[in-house]
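Sorry to interrupt, but I need a hand with the structure work. It will help me judge whether the discrete encoding reads sensibly. Write everything out right here, beneath this request:
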Amino acid sequence: MKAFRLAPLAALLLAAGVAAAAPLNAGLDSAGFDPASRAQDDLFRAANGRWVDTTEIPADKADFGTFIQLRDKSDKEVRAIVEELAAKKQKAGSVEQKISAFYGSYIDTAAIDKAGMKPVKTMLATIDAIKTRQDLAVWMGTVQGAMDTPVNLWVTADFKEPTVNRVMTWQGGLGMPDRDYYLKDDERIAKARGAYEQYLATLARLSGDKHPDATAKQVLALERRIADVHWDKVENRNPVKIYNPMTPAELKKSAPELDWDAFLKSAKLEGIDRLSVSQPSATVAIAKLLAETPLPEVKTYLKLRALDESADVLPKAFRDARFAFRGAALTGAKEDKPRWQKGIAEVNGALGEAVGQVYVARHFPPAYKARMQELVANLMKAYSDSIDGLAWMSPTTKAQAKDKLSKYMTKIGYPDKWRDYSKLVVKEGDALGNRQRSTRFEWERLAAKAGKPVDRAEWEMTPQTVNAYYNPSLNEIVFPAAILQPPFFDMGADDAVNYGAIGAVIGHEISHGFDDQGSQFDGDGKLQNWWTDDDRKAFDALGAKLVAQYETYEPIPGHKLNGKLTLGENIADLSGLQIAYKAYTLSLGGKEAPVIDGYTGAQRFFLGWSQAWRNKVREERALQLLTIDPHSPPQFRANGAAVNHDGFHAAFGTKPGDGMYKADADRIRIW
């Protein structure tokens, strides 16, 4: 059989019509290394220790590092585009005018302050007008997509029929990040809870409530009752548990206290034949709770939720109160984000693909996309070879795994078909109105897809987003343009660091199709078991070992990682790193990698991997992420995957007694 050889990155860059820098640089920021730390003891510290020790988190940040720096860069590039449009008179109703007006209205805080409560009075009046339980259901349906409510709706590919879009319910209605903030007895969480109660009281007082403290306590008590019936984050990771298809008639029978007909009709979903109820017990309990709670109390709760959702486009006292809780108390930030940067996030949310077209033209040359396609192909080949070599999996399941891998769809850079914003109405000087219209516009676009074929050309992220994702129902991996830049990908760097950084990111996303969640979907995106019983048991046993490993990590004293919550991401990190290293090794074609700056190719690969996770975080934000985030903290992502990697131990010659040493027999190898 002919040996497969991956072309080196430099050669591929030249083939794509872009000259690689010569000579190649190591792609490593050695100024951030800690000379007192050995990779054998702590890979993260070795690659990032001096940076961590000497870098101050900016006052407006909750955490700071590689991803945040790239997101700031993307925001500045988008700002330049938006301000360029704003500097010229644009044709009324054009997308350029809409972008300019949307951004300009948001950053004009003087006009927002002058308008006072007037913009939000219409929303509050709709709550005042609720007289019956049916009115309540109508109101909740009307604000879908614009505001979090106790029962939320979404439209996505049906788990069992992935070519058709179906409605899905999801629990909601909480003002704090997660049910744990209401239910756990912990000093830090209790402090956040106190700050939230104070925030609610401030919102009530600013809106004219004569008994703000009592109102805050009442609303917090209602939210606690909602939190009591919510499913936890680990339960919500199980696609089998959250897939509960019903007809509307069946839903009405199981939770009759909510007027589902009125709810669905006002959400533009009248006439749907079925939907999936993600957390059935929570949905039933919430319907009862809304029926049992006196309507005036429910209305007061909705008013404060509406004011919270709108606070950053209301007068300064509201904005300050929102930051005091959502910024300072929850994340530890010392200052609010610059208004311009929040405005860019607002524009990206409302008109993201329109801005993205210009962003791509300026910042994503065609050669970058071609290079990424080559790199993905390399990783896919390495993954296929890896499946062949699995000792714990039977030939039957291997065949199914390779079939799934062969059906992956890859999206790189930007969508082939751009979203149409012609019907979105944007008005000068109407920040809150623009937000309400844009969220309703997006919701109606989403609702219109219910019961119709899935459009596989759509994207869930804009090109200017520094991130990537895997969608199990479409069996696709997606890499927006903004992530393809240093330190993830450097056109002038040698292969090793690029494979360790962007290669591992690609491998990570590929691996999500084979993590504890994604592995329950087949190659066509259907939720169905394609494993033999013995293979699934072997896979679950490996996952249990990974859970146990990560639950030894303690980012905050008294708070260890939730290994079950982070399992999918930890599998993807471990497997992505394994696959990226195999792809890098294959790319060498049997030759020795050059030594650059004193590091071998293998050492540069792992240092590049660790460097990509450079980050530091405030304690409040760390607590929040430990509660809600399925990703492990960056330092444990860097070390937790590498400690199981044979290549890492060989590259740095680890020995018993080293901090990163792990005996060969104890290393966890999944994909």
User: Anything to note?
Assistant: Residues 339-363 form the longest helix (25 residues). The chain has two domains: 9-74+365-409+486-666, 132-313. Residues 129 and 421 are 32 Å apart (CA to CA). The radius of gyration is 26 Å.
